[in-house]
UniProtKB/TrEMBL annotation:
One GO CC annotation: extracellular region
CDD domains given in the database record: CuRO_1_AAO (cd13845), CuRO_3_AAO (cd13893)
Necessary cofactors: Cu cation
Entries under Pfam families matching the protein: Cu-oxidase (PF00394), Cu-oxidase_2 (PF07731), Cu-oxidase_3 (PF07732)
Organism: Urochloa decumbens
Protein known as: L-ascorbate oxidase
Domain Plastocyanin-like as annotated: residue spans: 37-147, 163-326, 424-554
Length: 581
């Protein structure tokens, strides 16, 4: 006889982690991983996923600020390369460990091993994921939690900790998805079948069917521990830190916990001025910490709801249970799950986003910028297919990683140098209509940034190919945090009205930021981390379709680069012939 479904989840629970009390010196933390395809049932439907050491999601890395992480990674995939990006880790002094294929390193070939070594320089909620092809959408991801350094304390108090890694899940393989996205004529991959909480979901049934007309109740017993619902055990009248991160391929999400307020205290590894909300939006690439106080009726359990935002939801919400001990984990909440705000209620989304401000003590941005780059996001056609473009160029990555080719000076030895990407676009472009000329071209989209320059980037959204459609795009910058200066509606003009919208007093530091439909977002960062860094939409199919740029910063100042990370493309012969990285 199977165990009760929620009891299985509780016995297998890894989400609850007691707050560490022991102090320890900064240290080197070593991990040995093997990446391979495995059979798994994330939503009770068995599929092939990319796992690490035979598990999905991958192992959680836990470290303290200042620690050095060593990950010896073997690629046991049979026919494809692999890399791991450490999302939110700035890789100061180690740009070769950023884990972006064709930018910071070569893909690790099957049966080869590569060792990532880097320092986690500041505390926060992070995660890691594949950054080659669409491997993130195949399940190659896991949590990376960095606690404060020895002798330091967080600027807020809590009694325990819960970690939720949110994702979406397709039943179609990523290889089929990539063929569809590249096909001529274009074939859209559709919406994901399930949403996952810590890698678990339920397809074609609901734990809360009694509150969901037309839904099928999930079985009372678990046939597979891999998709057992997540249960979050808590004690009454305590405060818990909920670490949240979204590694979705497509979906923007909203999370709420029945009858409980959430106080936002961290965003992307940076402290923010605390504020309370009923629910929280998470775009792909976002991470947050929120404080949850268990001050409700202790005789009840409560639903945790994760639903789709920003797209017409064809994927049902994911559910977990906040289990007030000593109640049984199998005791379903009596109240209906929180209802996710309407998918297109952007006023709700903006109201939350605009409240995020830096906590007192956060370094302020420079008062002015040395350079402004304006990036128009458009959907276009190219050679019978559909692409996403930036300033009318759809990003195509090279066979030779930029970090290697630029550091070796191969552009001076016959390798074509990337043409300078334009800093702006025609402001006569009609943002509210499908493009008059829908055609685009391929381009490297590389921007060379002067060392130490203060750079403003304006992300400008526009209408897609279909009329009255403008999508949400979360943009993620590698190698840096940036200040989010402000948001606006319509076209950015840079005039007094736009400047009045900017926040130079307490803008939050982030590494991922959203642009809303038909709007703009302005960020500022200092190009003080030599390397070659991706800046791209974090929606996996959009990046695959060309929605990104590359920032090359003072590559001549980069220290020694491991040769084993650059043995592909034109760098191979250069290194064999005595080239020095």
């Amino acid at each position: 006889m199977g165990l009760p479904l929620l009891a299985v989840a509780c016995c297998a629970l890894l989400a609850f982690v007691a707050r560490p009390h022991c102090a320890e010196a900064a240290k080197a933390r070593h991990f040995k991983w093997e990446i391979s395809n495995i059979f798994w049932s994330p939503d009770c439907e068995e599929k092939v996923v990319i796992g690490i050491n035979g598990q999905f999601p991958g192992p959680t890395i836990r470290a303290r600020a200042g620690d050095t992480i060593h990950v010896e990674l073997k690629n046991a995939l049979h026919t494809e390369g692999v890399v791991i990006h450490w999302h939110g880790i700035r890789q100061i002094g180690t740009p070769w460990a950023d884990g972006t294929a064709a930018i910071s390193q070569c893909a690790i070939n099957p049966e080869e091993t590569f060792t990532y070594r880097f320092v986690v320089d500041k505390p926060g909620t992070y995660f890691y994921h594949g950054h080659y092809g669409m491997q993130r959408a195949a399940g190659l991801y896991g949590s990376l939690i960095v606690d404060v350094a020895e002798g330091e304390e967080e600027p807020f108090k809590y009694d325990g900790e819960l970690n939720l890694l949110l994702s979406d899940w397709y039943h179609e393989s990523i290889h089929t998805q990539m063929v569809m996205l590249s096909s001529k004529p274009f074939r859209w991959i559709g919406e994901p079948q399930s949403l996952l909480i810590n890698g678990r979901g339920q397809y074609n049934c609901s734990m809360a069917a009694a509150h969901t007309p037309g839904a099928t109740q999930c079985p009372a017993t678990a046939v597979n521990r891999q998709c057992a619902p997540v249960v979050l055990p808590v004690l009454p009248n305590k405060t818990y830190r909920l670490r949240l991160a979204s590694t979705t391929s497509l979906a923007s999400l909203n999370l709420a916990i029945g009858n409980h307020k959430l106080t936002v205290v961290e965003a992307d590894g940076n402290y923010v001025d605390p504020f309370a909300v009923d629910d929280i939006d998470l775009y792909s690439g976002d991470s947050y910490s929120v404080l949850l106080t268990t001050d409700q009726d202790p005789s009840s359990n409560y639903w945790v709801t994760v639903g789709v935002r920003g797209r017409l939801p064809k994927t049902p919400p994911a559910l977990a249970v906040l289990n007030y001990r000593p109640n049984a984990a199998s005791k379903l909440p009596s109240l209906a799950p929180p209802v996710t705000p309407a998918w297109d209620d952007y006023a709700h989304s903006k109201a939350f986003t605009y409240r995020i401000r830096a906590r007192a003590g956060t370094p302020p941005p420079p008062a002015t910028a040395d350079r402004r780059i304006e990036l128009l996001n458009t959907q276009n056609k190219m050679d019978g297919g559909i692409k996403w473009s930036i300033n009318n160029a759809s990003m195509v990555l090279p066979a030779t990683p930029y970090l290697g080719s630029l550091k070796l000076g191969l552009n001076k030895s016959g390798l074509a140098a990337p043409a300078p990407a334009p800093d702006t676009f025609s402001h006569g472009y009609d943002l509210r209509s499908p493009p008059a000329n829908p055609n685009t071209t391929a381009g490297p989209n590389v921007y060379a940034l002067a060392h130490g320059a203060t750079v403003d980037v304006v992300l400008q959204n526009a209408n897609a190919l279909a009329a009255n459609v403008s999508e949400v795009h979360p943009w993620h910058l590698h190698g840096h945090d940036f200040w989010v200066l402000g948001y606006g509606e319509g076209g950015y003009r840079g005039d007094a009205a736009d400047e009045a919208r900017l926040n130079l007093r307490d803008p939050p530091l982030r590494n991922t930021v959203v642009i809303f439909p038909y709007g703009w977002t302005k960020i500022r960062f200092v190009a003080d981390n030599p390397g070659v860094w991706a800046f791209h939409c974090h929606i996996e199919p959009h990046l695959h379709m060309g929605m990104g740029v590359v920032f090359a910063e003072a590559v001549d100042r980069v220290g020694e680069v491991p040769k084993e990370g650059m043995m592909c493309g034109a760098t191979t012969s250069a290194l064999i012939n005595g080239g020095h990285l």
